[in-house]
C-alpha cells in the first residue's frame, strides 16, 4: 500500500466552493410502517389515476424495461403541447422539476451573475445559485407585510434570472397574472414562473400560454403534487423553442425512465379523475382554513394544496409543530425570516384534516 | 408588448461556454413498431427479472406513488453494501450512472483542473469535462496498438481525476485488476473505474472491494446493461465514506423514484435469474465472436456484452454499418480516431445474432 495514497484526503481535492455549500433540506421522512399523518411535504392525499396499473403492465408485457427510454419523453411532450397549443419542442421533460431548475441555472447563471427572487419562496433557488459554484449572487426581495410580492421592488431589480413560485411557497399566495406578466415584460433577463402548485389555483392563472409571446419567460411544472406522483420523478419546463433548445443541450441523454414517462402520460390524459381529486383538495382546503380560523389562526388565501398559518398571539408556531410531531402528525416549520411566525400544513384527506384540527384544538 | 422584450435573444444570456458545447451522442432510436434488430446501444437481449411485476404491483397497492421516495434509496444501498461488505453510506444511488458521473465531476473538477482518460473510452467523459464550464482540460492517452491501456503513460500522467471504463468501451477489453490497482496507487488524484459492463467480465475483477483500502478510488455501476433495466434510470457510485459524503451534497433531494428503487432492488436480489441470463450472453458472445472470426474479422477478447470488430482488409466498417442499417439491423459505428476502423456489435439473442451473421456473410 502506497503511503501517500493511504493518506489521501478528499477535502484537498474537492472544489473549495463546496466547503460552505449547504444542500436543500427536504421535509422529514417518517418510517413507512408508522401511522404518522404526513402533512409536511405537500404530497397529494389521494392516489394517482387508477389507469396507471394497466399502463405499467403494458410496459412490462411489451418488454420495454430492457430498452433505453425515448430521449425526449416524446409522447408526454406532445400531450402537453396539444393542451397549450405549443410546439412539442417548447417542452423539456425532466427528472422532476428539480432537474429542470438545475438545467436552467446551469445554462444561464455564470460567474458573477445575479439571481433575483422574492423572499420567502421555494428555498431551492438560493441552494441552486450556490451549487453552480461560479460565484453567482442571490438577491432576495422581501415580500410585503401582507405576504404578497413587492412587485415594485422586483420590477426595479436587475439580474440574469428572476425566479418565483406561482403560486408562491410557502405562503400559498397567487399574484394576479397581469401583474406577473408586467414583471416579465419589465425584467431585463430571464424569468422563471415555477408552477408546482398552479393546478390548485384558479383556472387560467398559469403563465404557460404566455411563453408564446414572452421570449424571456420560462415555466416549470411537476407531476409530484397535483398528479399525486411524488414517487416518480417527472417535471417539465416550457419556454421559447430557442431557449429550450439551449437548456436541452445540458440534459443527460436518457433523463426520464420509461415507467415515469408512461405513468405521467396516463395520469395527464385522465383529466376527469384529475379534476375530481383536485376539486376535493380545494374543498378540503377551504374547510380546514375556516376551522383553523375559528381557532384564531391568520391564514392568507391559498391557491395551493397547503395553508400558511400564523397561530393566534401567544401561541408559538415551533411549539405547536413539535407538539403535533409528538402526536405523530408531521407539518412543516421553517425557523428563518418571517416564516418563523408560521406553520405550513399540507391539505390531507378529510379524516387527516379532522384529526389535525382536533389535535390542534386540544393543544390550544 | 414591450419591444425590448420582443427582441429578447437567449443567446446573449446563455453562458458563453455553451456556444461550442456538443452534447453526448447516444445511439439511434428506431421507432418501437419496426422489426429492427437493435444491436447498437448494448441493451440486454433478455428481459429483466420476472419478479419485477409483483414488486411493481406492491408499490401501486401500497399507494407509494403519491409519496416522495426515500432520499437515499436506502434498501438498495443496504443490499449492495451487504454484497461487498461495505457501509451503506459508501454507496450513492443515482438516476443512472450518468448522474453519478456528473456529480463526481461537479464535486472535484474545478477551474483549470485536468481530467485524464485513455482513448478511446466512454465518450461521455470529455463531454462532462466541457459541461462543467469551468475551463477544465481533458487529457486523452491513446491506447496501445493492441487496444490495451497504455498503463505506463497513464501512470505518468498528472490530473485531478482519472476516468476509465473497466472493462473498457468500445473495445470490450478488461485490463488485469492488479495493473489497475497499481494505477490507482500511483495516480496523484481521484480515479474512477466505470464498471457499466463488469458483470460480463470474469468473476472478481471489480475494483469495488478495493474502495476499502484505496481512498482515492471510486467505482460506478449501472442497472442498464447486465440487469436489463435501461428503461429505468438507476446506477450507483461507490467510494470512501468521506468522498461519497461530499458527492452526495450535490444530488437532488429525491433523485431516484420509488418504482426505480423497488425494481432495482428486486432485480439485484434475484441472483439466480441474473446469473442465468448473464451466462447466456457470455455464451452467445463466444459463439458470435467465432462466427465473425471465421469471416476474417479481428476481434479482441471481450469482457462486455458487445464485440469491437475490425472487418477483414478491404471491407469498410462504415459501409458495413450502413448496409446492415438498410437491412434493418442497427450496430454502432464511431467515425473518429482508431474507432473508425471498427464496428461495435451488441450481443443479441441467438436468433438476432444468427440473422446478423447471415446478413454480414451475404454482404461480404
TrEMBL record, chains A, B:
Q: Known Gene3D superfamilies for this protein?
A: Aspartate Aminotransferase, domain 1, Type I PLP-dependent aspartate aminotransferase-like (Major domain)
Q: Which residues carry this modification: N6-(pyridoxal phosphate)lysine?
A: 225
Domain named Aminotransferase class I/classII large: which ranges? Answer: 36-360
Q: Which cofactor does it need?
A: pyridoxal 5'-phosphate
Keywords of the record: Amino-acid biosynthesis, Aminotransferase, Histidine biosynthesis, Pyridoxal phosphate, Transferase
Q: What is its EC number?
A: 2.6.1.9
Q: Which GO MF terms are attached to this record? A: histidinol-phosphate transaminase activity; pyridoxal phosphate binding
One GO biological process term is: L-histidine biosynthetic process
- Give the pathway annotation: Amino-acid biosynthesis; L-histidine biosynthesis; L-histidine from 5-phospho-alpha-D-ribose 1-diphosphate: step 7/9
**Complex formation:** Homodimer.
So what family is this one in? Belongs to the class-II pyridoxal-phosphate-dependent aminotransferase family. Histidinol-phosphate aminotransferase subfamily.
What name does this protein carry? Histidinol-phosphate aminotransferase
Amino acid at each position: 500500500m502506497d503511503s501517500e495514497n493511504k493518506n489521501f484526503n478528499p477535502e484537498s481535492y474537492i472544489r473549495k466552493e463546496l466547503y460552505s455549500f449547504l444542500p436543500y433540506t427536504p421535509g422529514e421522512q417518517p418510517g413507512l410502517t408508522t401511522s404518522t399523518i404526513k402533512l409536511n411535504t405537500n404530497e397529494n392525499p389521494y392516489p394517482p389515476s387508477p389507469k396507471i396499473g394497466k399502463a405499467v403492465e403494458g410496459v412490462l408485457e411489451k418488454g420495454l424495461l430492457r430498452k433505453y427510454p425515448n430521449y425526449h419523453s416524446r409522447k408526454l411532450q406532445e400531450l402537453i403541447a396539444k393542451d397549450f397549443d405549443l410546439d412539442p419542442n417548447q417542452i423539456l421533460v425532466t427528472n422532476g422539476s428539480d432537474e429542470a431548475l438545475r438545467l436552467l441555472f446551469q445554462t444561464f447563471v455564470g460567474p458573477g451573475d445575479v439571481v433575483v427572487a422574492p423572499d420567502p419562496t421555494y428555498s431551492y433557488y438560493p441552494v441552486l445559485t450556490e451549487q453552480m459554484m461560479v460565484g453567482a449572487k442571490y438577491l432576495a426581495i422581501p415580500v410585503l407585510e401582507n405576504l404578497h410580492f413587492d412587485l415594485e421592488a422586483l420590477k426595479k431589480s436587475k439580474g440574469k434570472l428572476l425566479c418565483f413560485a406561482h403560486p408562491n411557497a410557502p405562503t400559498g399566495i397567487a399574484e394576479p397574472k397581469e401583474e406577473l406578466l408586467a414583471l416579465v415584460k419589465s425584467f431585463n433577463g430571464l424569468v422563471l414562473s415555477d408552477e408546482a402548485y398552479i393546478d390548485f389555483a384558479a383556472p387560467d392563472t398559469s403563465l404557460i400560454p404566455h411563453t408564446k409571446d414572452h421570449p424571456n419567460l420560462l415555466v416549470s411544472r411537476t407531476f409530484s403534487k397535483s398528479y399525486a406522483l411524488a414517487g416518480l420523478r417527472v417535471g417539465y419546463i416550457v419556454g421559447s423553442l430557442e431557449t429550450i433548445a439551449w437548456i436541452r443541450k445540458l440534459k443527460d441523454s436518457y433523463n426520464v425512465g420509461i415507467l415515469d414517462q408512461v405513468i405521467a402520460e396516463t395520469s395527464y390524459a385522465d383529466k376527469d379523475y384529475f379534476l375530481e381529486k383536485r376539486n376535493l383538495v380545494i374543498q378540503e382546503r377551504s374547510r380546514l382554513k375556516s376551522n383553523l380560523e375559528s381557532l384564531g389562526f391568520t391564514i392568507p388565501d391559498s391557491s395551493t394544496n397547503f395553508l400558511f398559518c400564523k397561530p393566534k398571539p401567544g401561541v408559538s408556531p415551533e411549539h405547536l409543530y413539535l407538539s403535533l410531531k409528538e402526536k405523530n402528525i408531521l407539518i412543516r416549520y421553517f425557523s428563518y425570516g418571517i416564516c418563523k411566525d408560521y406553520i405550513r400544513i399540507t391539505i390531507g384527506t378529510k379524516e387527516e384534516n379532522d384529526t389535525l384540527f382536533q389535535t390542534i384544538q386540544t393543544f390550544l
